[in-house]
Amino acid sequence: MSAAVLCIGTELTRGEIVNTNASWLAEELTDRGIEVGAIETIADDRPLIVETLHRLSAKHLVIVCTGGLGPTTDDITSECVAEALGVPLVRDEASLAAIRTRMEKFGRVMAESNKKQADFPTGARVLENRKGTAPGFQVALGHAQASFMPGVPREMKSMFGEQVAPALEPFVKGQMFQVRLKTFGMTESAVNDRLAGIEAEHAVTLAYRAHFPEIEVKVLARGSDCPARARAAADAVIARLGLDVVYGEGDVTFAQQLGKLLVERKLTLGVAESCTGGTVGRLLTERGGASDFFVGGVICYANRVKEGLLGVPAPLLAKHGAVSAPVARSLAQGALAELGSDLGLALTGVAGPSGGTADKPVGLVHFAVASLAGISDRQMVFPGSRTQVRDLAAFAGLSLVRKVLLHGHDA
What we know:
By secondary structure, the chain is of the alpha/beta class. The chain folds into 3 domains: 2-171, Molybdenum Cofactor Biosythetic Enzyme, Chain A (3-Layer(aba) Sandwich); 176-249, 2-Layer Sandwich (Alpha-Beta Plaits); 254-407, CinA-like (Maf protein). The chain is built from 15 helices and 17 strands. It has helices at 10-13, 20-31, 46-59, 77-85, 93-105, 153-167, 188-194, 198-202, 226-241, 254-264, 279-285, 303-310, 314-320, 325-339, 386-407; strands at residues 2-8, 35-42, 62-66, 89-91, 119-121, 125-127, 136-141, 144-149, 176-183, 205-211, 214-222, 246-249, 269-273, 294-299, 343-349, 364-371, 374-381. The strands form 4 sheets. Strands 2-1-3-8-7-6 form a 6-stranded mixed β-sheet, sandwiched between helices. It has a 5-stranded mixed β-sheet with strand order 14-13-15-16-17, sandwiched between helices. The protein has a 4-stranded antiparallel β-sheet with strand order 10-11-9-12. β6 (125-127) and β7 form a beta hairpin. α2 packs parallel to α6 (153-167), α3 crosses α4 (77-85) and α10 packs parallel to α15 (386-407).
């Protein structure tokens, strides 16, 4: 049994919007034990949509589709599905009322064009949209169960998790199981080499996904005992790479996992950022719950801010320069003292593309972590663009915090 992911939208085929829905849905289906056999992206073209629906429904038992459920004239997915089924559209009054209520809640009046969003192929199961105005729907199309969701990622993800995924359970036969391991600190080629032989030993398939600056290792097993083999192989991967590299599983982020560790230790973190310009703070706060472990940060670009807010001595700056180990250590201690946290992280460097010297090249970053038990510092020269240097530095700084938590200072 296989599934197809279909994304509809001329803005996608023209490259105006990056299609993140396809990869997200493919991973979700795979994680649930459903093999994805096709991913297609097509324009808002009526004959093409109808032809594609007929073709995919003849080859797959599951179709998940996004896009084309909006109020404008180019949103024609519902009409095309009705045509493919040979049935008329019918208006769902409950959906119409929900759209009107949601718009009134935000002080808007429902336009005439919004009414079409409550029109569905006859016999469709309506999928409520709790994050927006466009409901989705589900139909039997040929041999396939076909689910149609809005193209807005936030709305689609909510609808899939709450309403589509539970309806897919009958299609999961226990013939495939995948464990996703999240890593940071090694290159993709180094991870691959370190894991040589695991596939043959455990009868699994390993796949790698580079999501800068992380590497995800996917452990996929097929067969009646696939969950046990996938778990055993995943444990072997963790043993080979080590917990300093493998930081979590599934959809967890690096910062989220670090936050969990801080909460378990009943500790808080404060940050002093120079070259990263708030990147660490963004990573720490992009998911809920950050207030449990993150007290705040100072973006200390100018030396006078380093001195005035974080207590870095002017003679230290004059002697070593802002991009130096002594200043990074002083900034970390300043974050600890001035922000009232249990640990202080500091980063200072040359993000580029200009500003580098022979002694302090572009990409050089000094970072330090301070606590009442001591202080640890590191320096690295990161490759890449300004954005890449900042992202790598932020991850490396958070990685040092994690190592201090796991092993103590300078372990």
